Amino acid sequence: MIPYGRQSIDEDDVAAVVEALRSDWLTQGPACAHFEEAVAKYCDAPHAVATCNATAALHLACLALKIGPGDLVWTSPITFVASANCALYCGANIDFVDIDTETFNISVPALQRKLADSGRDGRLPKALIVVHIAGTPCDMKEISALCRSYGIAVVEDASHALGSIYCDTKIGACQFSDLTIFSFHPVKMITTAEGGMVLTRDEHLADQMRCLRSHGIVRAPNLLSRPADGEWYYEQVALGYNYRLSDLHAALGLSQIRKLEHFVERRQTIAERYRKAFVRLPLTVQHVEQDRRSSYHLFIVRISSELGIDARSRVFHQLRSRGIAAQVHYIPVHTQPFFSNRGFSAKDFPASIAYYRECLSLPIFPELDCEAQDHVICSVSQALTG
Ligand SMILES: *Cc1c(COP(=O)(O)O)cnc(C)c1O
Fold this sequence. Notes:
Helix content is 39%, strand content 14%. It is built from 13 helices and 15 strands.
């Protein structure tokens, strides 16, 4: 089977993890700090906090923003469930903003309308979590200006978007947001097996997340509430978690980030080949604006339901029968039973429902070679025209 995505691990990565295993540190230690520095430097952000996965990073981001019971958070319905669950972990409520039909990201006009309506009803969110779907950056200038005018924090769930660029700045620089989250799950841009990170320009938010990442414990003299009893002394000042990234994982991340630009270039080349091959086919490729670079975590196409109500499913199954594991990203979060039980109905976000009927993620990953990609292109073309 050709998967829709997979990790690239080489001998340098293996050696880096073995070296970490032989070092004095196994849990969070110097490799973790170096990995944080490397990602912060790559993105040009001053602070980075590594976590055991991006779900934990999203949770820490919400906690640092003091999201709690009675608060409301908005996100996109077209995302992985973790983008919504982080608000619920904090006891807050979640709501969604419908997507743009061509970029599959949060629609700015839909956001504008919802803010105006909610402002009138006094039901504004405390934070908006945007998702750069497939690595394609959202309209951050417009989104950040809107949110700022209502006093709403902006969090980027950039799980797909390490290596993406928006208006000459890397996603992760937090130019238009308070916090940015990356995932290092194996299908994402680089991997630590499991792992995540939060980036921010706000030192206070970074300190908070560092504290909450490790049980709510602090040691720095300026953060203690009482004089230290001795050198062993620490204080628990908040209800924190164990969300640390181990040095074994961080060593893998450090080795991987050296190859990130190469990975992005490979994905761009593959995406360009798909775009050229598909110009004459009855399908629509995700739109990427001129002023941004997509990392192409995913290559998403829409197969119009005008070709038949189950045209997408037909293509999906034909690809499976030819050894190609295309995927669907994502089932709209608000239609999941857990969320429909909380009162959401499919018709609340019609653009997301229409997208879900038509979307398909085709294989894209650095080691996908031309031969395998040609097999995908031929199979898509035959499924659509045969
Ligand atoms: C993968 C992903 C996550 C969760 O990442 P983990 O590291 O597996 O916790 C969250 N949001 C989005 C959009 C993702 O794609």
